[in-house]
Amino acid sequence: MELVTYPHPALLRKTRPITVEEATSAELQARVEEMREIMHQSDGVGLAAPQVAWSVRLLLISPAGTRESDELLLNPVIKARRGKVVGEEGCLSFPGIYVQVERAREIDVEFLDDQGQIRRETRKDFAARVIQHELDHLENILLLHRMSPADRVRVKRDLEALSQSSD
Fold first, then answer.
1. Which of 67, 53, 57 is nearest to 22 (CA)?
2. I need a labelling partner for 146 at 20 to 30 A (CA). Which of 37, 87, 104, 137 fits?
3. Around Cβ 65, how many Cβ atoms within 10 Å?
4. CA distance readout (Å), 113 to 98, 107, 117, 132
């Protein structure tokens, strides 16, 4: 398992839901551990399965950037959004590129945990931003799709360099 960067085709593949049986499996836990290593080695605060070329509805977040704050969300769905805030975002699949993105300030998210239990929680501010960003990956929405026209012009050379490095 390795981190993939834009324009890798895995970033735009349809993702499938995780079953309850998979959620509690040793295989899933082993793959999540690999993702955890990749996320922390890359100094990330979130990583979605498509970013490691795994087309499932799974994301790992660590809003505090520590292993103790790691959380696994399987089949996440945002049930409610409140407020709006614009903030800077980067993405491990777009290294070195940072743009302003509007997100909900607060969300209610429903997901399956690693025990196969459905949970619904409210997240605010940075944690809400991280979940929304990673959930975009599960919906095939990339940082590129969230960029303003001005940001696209500003980072055009960086995007071209990423495209060329994948050839």
1. 57
2. 37
3. 12
4. 30, 17, 5, 17
Q: How many CA atoms lie within 13 A of 155 on its CB side?
A: 20
* Vertex 6 angle, CA 141 and 60, to 5°: 60
Check whether 167 has a pLDDT greater than 80: no
Active site residues: 134
Residues 61 and 127 sit within 8 Å (Cβ to Cβ): yes
Radius of gyration of the chain (CA): 15
H or E element: which one contains 28?
A: helix 26-41
Pick the CATH number of 9-165 from 3.30.470.20, 3.40.50.2000, 1.10.357.140, 3.90.45.10: 3.90.45.10
- pLDDT per position as a tens digit, 92-105: 999 999 999 999 99
pLDDT computed for residue 49 by the predictor: 98
- With 70 as the cut, is the pLDDT of residue 156 above it? yes
Span 148-154, mean pLDDT?
95
The angle subtended at Cα 13 by Cα 63 and Cα 106, nearest 5°, is 30
